[in-house]
Amino acid sequence: MQELRLLCWAVLLGLVQSCPEPCDCGEKYGFQIADCAYRDLEAVPPGFPANVTTLSLSANRLPGLPEGAFREVPLLQSLWLAHNEIRTVAAGALSPLGHLKSLDLSHNLISDFAWSDLHNLSALQLLKMDSNELTSIPRDAFRSLRALRSLQLNHNRLHTVAEGTFAPLTALSHLQINDNPFDCTCGIVWLKTWALATAVSIPEQDNIACTSPHVLKGTPLSRLPPLPCSAPSVQLSYQPSQDGAELRPGFVLALHCDVDGQPAPQLHWHIQTPGGTVEIASPNVGTDGRALPSTLAANSRPRFQAFANGSLLIPDFGKLEEGTYSCLATNELGSAESSVNVALATPGEGGEDALGRRFHGKAVEGKGCYTVDNEVQPSGPEDNVVIIYLSRAGSPETAAAGGGAARQPLPGLFLLGQSLLIFFLASF
């Protein structure tokens, strides 16, 4: 009913509105056509009849498409914009065109495109974006285009295509993606496999080729040799240590994220403390523990020190540093994450760990070292108590190098499931 009212409204307006002066408007083969091609236009002219279903603005000098550029023509089914000078397509420029079936944006200079506008174009069957300056495509760019039959992305500057990008295109029968400068790394291997197996017609496959790395330059994707690729894996380990021979209040808590994967994953720390969330792209310090020159606090010692080898050092660990520590590793093939909850407790007193489990603890001084007599009220098989020994000698340099002195049991650290409990002794 709403579409019928819209159609009636559009027809009535179409009867009273005139055509923009530079254009020719009329009916042909049952379609309401507005022809504005080859008019040397620098902007989309106003004043179109609302019942226009085909609009040609090809071969003009349009520099961009602003929001609401086609608000006057909501029933548009075909839009031709090839051979302009369009660099930017703003959000909201195309989204009102829910009836659009054919869109030609080829032979422009588009580098900035509002991909989210495509989510509203569920009727689209033809999309031509070839011969532009596109460098990337969001993974969900085509998620609503289940009616799309032909997609042309050739002659752009695409370096890769995310796996799953074409999965929503269940009606796709023709894809052109040749003559892009592809980086033939692990992230593109899926495209080779998909292209060889799909029923979609993909012409010029010899021109779907590698530009980098140099050893593979010019190699067609279909003949790409096997690459040593693996998704990330992470293993989080922890070692609280007392910095220096003389014991002082406040531990230096050292976490280490052992990362594996090919290509080498990027490491990121996510820390949730009582004061809020901290995000750290590793590394943020050099081997001396001082902030890198690129950070805001260059040459200082950050509260959380992330080293290039995967270690995270928290000097003078206290109540404010309690919380959940997660390391996240990401490469072209995916991501992996590992977390640990860290909480402080007073020795000799009962309490709860970070997961809400009750415990009882009692500190006992031994010969030259400290041990803890600890009792845990188990609530399940995961509540095993594991003693982790603390190193007396440790420094930022040691953490960065991955080394350390012989470990000795110091004030008690226990792992309950995935919760760490650190006991500070009154004698400190």
TrEMBL record:
In this record, what's one Pfam family?
LRR_8
The listed locations are: Secreted
* Segment forming the signal sequence: 1-18
Q: What's a single GO CC term here?
A: extracellular region
Keyword Ligase appears in the UniProt entry: no
- Please, which domain of life does this record's source organism belong to? Eukaryota
Gene3D superfamilies from the xrefs? Answer: Immunoglobulins (2.60.40.10), Ribonuclease Inhibitor (3.80.10.10)
Q: Where is the Ig-like domain?
A: 232-343
Output the SUPFAM superfamilies linked to this UniProt entry.
Immunoglobulin (SSF48726), L domain-like (SSF52058)
What keyword terms does UniProt attach to this protein?
Disulfide bond, Glycoprotein, Immunoglobulin domain, Leucine-rich repeat, Repeat, Secreted, Signal
* Protein name in UniProt: Immunoglobulin superfamily containing leucine-rich repeat protein
Provide the species name. Sciurus vulgaris (Eurasian red squirrel)
